[in-house]
Amino acid sequence: MKKVLILLNVLLIASSATLSAQSDSAKKAEALVIYMEVNDYVVENEACLRCHGESKYILKDESMEREITQSMCRDKIIERDDYYSMVHKSFACLDCHSYDYEVFPHAYELRLEPTFTCLDCHGYDEDYAQYHFEDIEVEFQESIHMSANPDNFTCWKCHDPHSYRTFVRDDEKSVTEAIAYNNDICLSCHSDFSRFELLTDKDEIDLLDTHSWLPNQAAHFRSVRCIECHTSLSDSVLVAHHVQTKDLAVRNCIECHSSSSILMGSLYKHQAIESRGKLGFVNAVILNEAYVIGANRNKVLSFAGVMIFLLTLGGISVHIVARIIFKK
Amino acid sequence: MSKLSYHYPLIIRIWHILNALCILLLIATGISMYYADPGRPLIEFSWAVKLHNFTGIVLSFSYLIFFFANLFTENGCYYRTKWKGIINRLIKQGMYYMFGMFKGEKKPFPITEKRKFNPLQHISYIMIMYLAVPFVIISGLGLMFPESVLKAPFGVGGILITDILHVATGFFLSLFLIIHIYVSTIGASKSANFKSIVNGYALVEEDEEEED
User: Fold this and answer.
1) Is residue B211 in a domain?
2) Measured between CA atoms, how close is A325 to chain B, in angstroms?
């Protein structure tokens, strides 16, 4: 019943729009109806998103009876599509944010509002035990991100609370998608100095230059996540969070390009657990998305190769013996 | 009647030794990458990649020189064959290597001024130089520039297919190399053919009417 009322409310908003803006409003109303399939607070959230879901907002000066349009700060914009398709898509804004945000203009103190960490909701909870949030927290605490800036670095610096999606456990999503999504997280700071300098006093990094030693650099960037080389692996955590200093990064090609490739314990860990030894290839799961020289050998072809090689040597050996016997 | 003849001109010998060095280096670096193992490195991986790429490019240029030289010079005639009766000639030469040479039979296709290669050499060199080497070069260039390879023909990774074909062709080239070196010991003496390809002189028979 509540949903029907909300729907009617939304349709009313749509129908009251002017003719020229009717199609835009109708589209927005349609989108809101779709969001309602995953979230019970779509209408309530619109109280926030009518400003924070747009690139601009309107300030009203009631004494002078005028309106001023201002642009919304980039970091404060929340894309509705992203929000309603992320891991916390069923949330109301006020599940995490103070009720004081209902008052506009927002109070200065709210800018200092402490944010939840992952452990605040997921820690020491049987329902989330399989994700090992406690181990992730330990890894994060030991990471260079935390040690370099313990006051400002939180889970949310990488995992945007308003858009974060997961990939590695989802068999429907490709590894290529996961790589691009994960690397974008790193690049959002490491290739955007305006964000990078908020967390460190270091100079801007030229990633193409610092990675110039990589052969086929673009292919590497497309095929692996930054964290493959920049974290230390652990057994319990599916996605390593112990980000290390650059001097500890993997530089030895053979750590990936060999039958004991570390990629099987990182990028392909989930698939490696789910499916072992497909197609007769060494590290077969990598083959679904990529081909890693040295890490993907076809066992059948390798065996056939060795046999043909031995047969050739055998034939030559017989010929040599015959030549010795017949003195030729 | 045998006579010592200047059989391999200097330019052919330089090209041959360059090709041999390239193929040996490509096999060693190729094996190092394919069987990459932190515990048993033949050639360290990053060096193997660099050397393999560099040598592959040198081999490609060497092949282009061979290809165009054979198009525009007389050397090309050694790589053309009469296909009629080829099976019989191959069997005849094969039988000589397997049985005839041990019975002291005469060589069925002795080397002459006009006939540089016996039928088995002839066909294997044509297959190697006009099929295997160009294929290994094209597939190698595909791996060097992976964006040029079709992404997923037949639903399987294009790079995977290219690499398997590249490795398989490289493997058969390695086998050819082993057999080529071994057969080279079958000459006037065990080292005669090796000396010939170094100094250019070889013992050849008077030309016959029949050619392979």
Assistant:
1) no
2) 9
